[in-house]
Amino acid sequence: MLLLLNTYPLMVSEDLVFRSKETTLQSSVSVIVYSLSGLDQLTEENVAAAMAVVEESSLSRVLVTNSTGRILYDTRETGGAIGEYGLYTEIVQALLGNDAFTCTYGRGAFRSRASSPVLYRNQIIGAVYAYEYDTEQAALLAGLQGNLLRLSGVIAVVVLALSMVLSRALTQKIGRLLTAIRQVRAGAYSHRADIRGKDEIAQIAQEFNSLTDRLQTTESARRRFVSDASHELKTPLAAIRLLTDSILQTENIDPAITREFVSDIGQEAERLARITEDLLRLTRLDSGAVGKPEVVDVLPVLEQVMRMMNLVAQEKGVEMTYDAAEGCTVLAAKDEIHQVIYNLVDNAVKYSAAGGAVQVSLRWRSEQVVLEVADNGAGIPEEDLPRIFQRFYRVDKARSRAAGGTGLGLSIVQDTMEKRGGTVEAANRPGGGAVFTVRWPYAKEGERL
């Protein structure tokens, strides 16, 4: 920009001066040519007489030549060239019948030259040459150039100062952001980048803080998950070890007691297998390793689950009923639909007392397939409802372990539904008990992701 500031105005000004010089100099030459146009031939005497009536101008030098280029008139007082031949390019062009003009700028002056032919009855009888040496306009142009240079210097200083200020401000912001990144990389997930403003770096810092918040939440959940998983795995393992130690350390143990201990070991092993299987299923969901979706009718899957759970419900004295509509198709994997329904129905049966009832309904509502699993048990305390889908969370831990629960079933249901764009909600029924509502987006036959 400074280079443009110091070149473009000067070039425009110089071009304007050139155009002005061409106009004024050619006008002066035309006046002289007009004063000589009445002569049939040019001689030193008649040219001098004709030039005597021409008004004085600011021209530095005027030459008049005959048709052969011999100088007949010269305004230079000392060192005149009368009688010599003018071999200037402009004079040659004029004797060839052309108007000529040249102008140059340098060394503090404009040097302008113009020439025109003198005609008599369409015959070239001579030429007029004018030269102007102008230092006044050159001084004005030099002054403009000096002012531009001074202005450029001031602008350069201001820009440099602003650049240093902005650079320091940006460097400090970037430095604070880098410090925050290094702190978080080192494991300090609670550290935040304190950068204020509305510029891009401040926006990046805000996004970084948001990302760090999520990272801290994820890390807290991971640590809690590892802690809970370790605790859950430790419980059956401790029971198995206690039972095996009792068998090994007790001499002449009663076979009936041994059989009872072995049965308990088998139950704990089954519980350990269920926990491991649920953990693997959650790991696959977290990694995005879900089955290939297809259009699945939910009704046959629901009927299969109800047949599987019917024997368990009868043994506990719980009545199971379902009411389902046909054509409830969703876009998912068949196994995961089975897992969702099984977990909810199994959970309802486990938390229902003898003589209780579990009702399941499947309906199509507003472009959604809605599954409801309700029981008439004790329900869920209001303070536990927001946390019911957390991993390893139990409302009644002692009762859950006694029923063989892992605390992961509802988490699997929620994660599975989120992967397919659905939802699951838990609520208490007005008459007692709990109801879980699952909503899948309705899918037509032939639809694919």
What does this protein look like?
- There is one protein chain.
- The protein has three domains: 2-134, PAS domain (Beta-Lactamase, 2-Layer Sandwich), CATH 3.30.450; 200-284, Helix Hairpins (Orthogonal Bundle); 291-441, Histidine kinase-like ATPase, C-terminal domain (Heat Shock Protein 90, 2-Layer Sandwich).
- It contains ten helices and twelve strands.
- It has helices at 2-36, 44-52, 89-95, 136-185, 200-249, 255-286, 298-316, 334-350, 397-402, 409-419; strands at 61-66, 71-74, 100-106, 109-120, 123-134, 294-297, 319-324, 329-332, 357-365, 368-375, 423-428, 434-441.
- The strands form three sheets. A five-stranded antiparallel sheet has the order 2-1-5-4-3, sandwiched between helices.
- Helix 5 packs antiparallel against helix 6 and helix 8 packs antiparallel against helix 10.
- The two termini are 55 Å apart.
- Residues 397-404 have low confidence and may be disordered.
CATH fold naming of the largest domain:
Heat Shock Protein 90
- The fraction of residues assigned to DSSP E strands is 15-25%
Q: What best-fitting shape do the alpha-carbon axes yield?
A: rod-shaped
- Tally of DSSP helical segments: 10
Largest sheet: 5 strands, antiparallel
Radius of gyration: 52 Å
* Stretches with pLDDT under 50, minimum 5 residues: 397-404
CATH superfamily of the largest domain, called what? Histidine kinase-like ATPase, C-terminal domain
CATH architecture assignment of the largest domain: 2-Layer Sandwich
Q: Name the helicity range.
A: 40-55%
Task: Briefly note the structural class of the backbone.
Answer: alpha+beta
What CATH first level of the largest domain would be assigned? Alpha Beta
